[in-house]
Amino acid sequence: MTISSRTLASIALVLAAAIPAAAQDDVQTFNAFAVVTADGTIVRSAEKQLMAIATLSGPFFVETDEGPQQGGRVSCAISARIDQATRKTSASGACTFTAHDGATAWGDWDCAGYELVGCRGGFKLTGGTGRFVGASGESTFVWRPTAHEFKKQLDGTVLDNVTGIVLWRDFKLKGK
User: Fold this and answer.
1) What is the C-alpha to C-alpha distance for residues 132 and 87, in angstroms, rounded to an integer?
2) In this predicted model, what pLDDT tens digit does every residue of 120-135 receive, in sequence order?
């Protein structure tokens, strides 16, 4: 299966018809973001360390010359370790992008940063279904939480409801 330039533009929307057409092996570069909520659990993993396991999900947008264009939805799993002494955070996970027509793309990410500030790292597209079969790409991955709501449970764990934004900067996307 050959990925056309129109399909590459559609992938960009999922990951804007506003992206110019290109030859099959051209690399498309774009910025994208998702406004997400994160629901999960925080547990103490050591005296001054916490682990957060959550799912980030929300609508996905591609930045174009005409403004953001919604491309579908994204859902990302996150596993984060927070050092309470230094406030340093390291996290990793995987994301699934779902287009309006049901085609999907997915990838892995990791990042490092500081609690409540967020983290920066790398993202790599690892596969897809439908018109996204054979696509590859990578970008800078940035997670910026904006609000937290903690609810302590009887067993001592804490449920964390966080809102924020996930950014994919300088995403370089290529068809097969």
Assistant:
1) 38
2) 999 999 999 998 898 8
